[in-house]
Recover the amino acids of this structure.
């Protein structure tokens, strides 16, 4: 019985860690893609790559945007 709650807490921490990793990856992908699109030679190729919707991404909200979606200091999306 004592280990059941410990395993449950550990499982939640692992699940949250994977969610954090996924959100960070999506933010980094969009940020890199937006920078590459500005380079003349690579820009055409970068525009073909997919981008993620980060309007509800806490990582993008924390850093203020990913190159496509901008956020104010309160974490609200700016249109």
């Amino acid at each position: 019985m004592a280990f059941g709650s410990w395993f449950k807490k550990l499982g939640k921490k692992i699940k949250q860690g994977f969610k954090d990793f996924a959100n960070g990856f999506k933010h980094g992908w969009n940020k890199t893609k937006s920078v590459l699109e500005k380079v003349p030679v690579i820009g055409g190729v970068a525009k073909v790559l997919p981008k993620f919707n980060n309007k509800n991404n806490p990582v993008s909200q924390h850093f203020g945007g990913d190159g496509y979606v901008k956020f104010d200091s309160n974490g609200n999306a700016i249109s």
About this structure: The CA atoms of residues 61 and 75 lie 5 Å apart. The two ends are 51 Å apart (CA to CA). The longest strand covers residues 70-71. The helical segments are 2-36, 40-46, 58-63.
